[in-house]
Amino acid sequence: MEPLKSHTGKAAVLNRINVDTDQIIPKQFLKRIERTGYGRFAFFDWRYDANGEPNPEFELNQPVYQGASILIAGENFGCGSSREHAPWALDDYGFKIIIAPSFADIFHQNCFKNGMLPIRMPYDNWKQLVGQYENKSLQMTVDLEKQLIHDSEGNQISFEVDPHWKEMLINGYDEISLTLLLEDDIKQFESQRSSWLQA
Amino acid sequence: MMPRTIIEKIWDQHIVKHGEGKPDLLYIDLHLIHEVTSPQAFEGLRQKGRKVRRPQNTFATMDHNIPTVNRFEIKDEVAKRQVTALERNCEEFGVRLADLHSVDQGIVHVVGPELGLTLPGKTIVCGDSHTSTHGAFGALAFGIGTSEVEHVLSTQTLWQQRPKTLEVRVDGTLQKGVTAKDVILAVIGKYGVKFGTGYVIEYTGEVFRNMTMDERMTVCNMSIEAGARAGLIAPDEVTFEYCKNRKYTPKGEEFDKAVEEWKALRTDPGAVYDKSIVLDGNKISPMVTWGINPGMVLPVDSEVPAPESFSAEDDKKEAIRAYEYMGLTPHQKIEDIKVEHVFIGSCTNSRMTDLRQAADMIKGKKVADSVRAIVVPGSQSVKLQAEKEGLDQIFLEAGFEWRESGCSMCLSMNNDVVPEGERCASTSNRNFEGRQGKGARTHLVSPAMAAMAAIHGHFVDVRKFYQEKTVV
User: I want to staple B428 with a disulfide (CB 3.0 to 4.6 A). Which of A41, B346, B357, B451 is the partner?
Assistant: First the structure.
């Protein structure tokens, strides 16, 4: 996994609550057996009209947001299905960082596993960010090591992150390789299980 | 020892390595697999030269994108490739697979319990958010992403943050016609779609105690719709009776030994939950969703809410989106909403209890001319049992289609799609935009309510059915 220490990019705002993974990547695109190439399907039903043309009403289609790599999203982002195709699609679309007041648990975890940083931000701070970035073409820097977001206009805001995931992202660790080092612990655990569980 | 909840007990029993200030490394007893979320995980193993650590703890079936008519003819080439990939992966890595030829095939959350793979006290995962279903047995069961599927395949463990605990207590007696589906929809309607985020739920109280295993599965299934990755019900005699003599359940003395262990799986007196909520079961009505998430739900005898009734600005904005998408207007009576489609099926409501409840409503009646209605049994075993009981004939005579088992119109990955702008009374779990097809309008209901909607062409309070019965 590519380490993620700090990221600078344009921020886009999608100020809707309860954006579910069916919207992030509709089910017709889950039939592929690859892990890449989902970006063009991200938000498909919102993003394109019936003729396959970009829908001008959809927030992320605004010219000011083109090339954005940081998504400022609404509450309960990523709710619904466990499909990891959702973070794959967002990543492939270009988003590395997602900032929201709250995330669904499975989606939140899936982001970390793909080297993306989901930041849970207290509602008032988040609201302030929305005000600063909505309908604008503005860059921000997300410094994971310092847990600080700042921009060229002098705005600065700190954020919380789980220390475990911070370490994993900064070092770009492969989780499975780390767990495999604990083989002895796993074996030991297995040897003590009830017999009905061994069947 | 400090009194503990059942959630903490199961958690503690599965810690391989306690992470100080970190997630715990949890042992996984059962890993269920299906065709959609596993191919990339197997590919990861292949690339790194890794093996499946415990094929005997892994079980696969195909359910998400298989046809429910002419099931062996998958016309969609991309979907077919996914099914073929599962067959190849299971063979190469030595994983048991219930394929389309198997009598054990069905929706992964229906067959796990049927086969006795799902048992109390186990940790169970699957690359599917409705894995919470298995919590009905007093198991700790939750959905995972594909990276985690790969992690479990190669290590039989997962790093997990210890969850907070949430008690959802429903006491009292349900009115005739009010079902498990209505109970869970009422809970989500009252507390919203994210009150369970970060928690594992334990459902307690008389109402859940009086439920069959099928009904308990319906409740736990929709824990994820409340934001909780997992929801469970402490096992009791009903659970033990269900588990006895299933294909993979331990037999004889081993079973008795297991039951002794399962009896300890209950929340100790004095144990404290991080949060508790209470509902009065007597007051729950048959529920119908009107909007674009399962929290937008109301008793059948009410009206679509007005935008003014939402105090938070965000909720109001979402409600306005919902009216537009659903083609509804504020103050419209729920019972006046007409449906063109009825779907009885999904991992929420496709088991024997569900089919029996629906069949009861339609016996000797006809599906309205304006409605297309389908029944998709959750598994081959449910299908066979229903046919043995003659339920298929009741459905067919009423004008329902009787299909082969699979996920079908719950997420419409196969050809079972609701056309744009049309409305479906559905026993599934999600009424998200586009879930049953682009522009399709989904109303989540119980099997009994869906059956009544099929007959009348619009929603009808199922309690009236029982009143009529009493009068006659």
Answer: B346
